[in-house]
Amino acid sequence: MAPLSPDEWIVLALSLKVSLVAVALSLPICFFLAWILSRWHFPGKLLVDALVHLPLVLPPVVTGWLLLLLFGMNGLIGSWLSQALGVTLLFRWTGAALAAAIMAVPLMVRAIRLSIEAIDGRLECAAATLGASRMRIFLTISLPLALPGVLAAVVLGFARSLGEFGATITFVSDVPGETRTLPIAIYAAMQMPNGEPIVTRFAIISILLSLGALMLSEILVRRIARGGRHVI
Asked: What is this structure's pTM?
């Protein structure tokens, strides 16, 4: 495989940046959503659950269109961001990160929720009986035991963000050096005469990154799971 050109290195660096920022932005929100969906009972819980998983079943183009309506220059949120804070997400890498984060949310919430639901509630009850506060129980028991799910969510979110195409290109378009991530670069190269070598290089990189992330996650999850048995 031929070495990457300077422009191709920019695409790779941008893809990694977008994916990492997307995961960092969505992880706290996903953990909160997973926690309330697994531990709380409230009216409308079914609707919240459905909305969380909606990007998983909606066509990505529809998700991108909804992001345009909300975060575009004339959108409900986008116009306020522009006027109040001078922040514009349209045609920017930050918009690509937002689109990737939205598309990753269902997978991340699902992974964390399964981990939280697998926690033995008797451990938390025993700690409460011994006088531990809710915060201490959360920090010393619940969170450590949920870490395998959190780690799995991070990797799934990263891999999903790395492969995000439909919502991103609909929301922020294809701007070289700004929003052209790996999937968009592959699509653009497919439209070019003699673009197959570029497609091949980017496809191989995408496969290696995703495969490496999943393998690393499996190793770390197993180690954390073994350590979680000795929390108390």
From this structure: 0.86
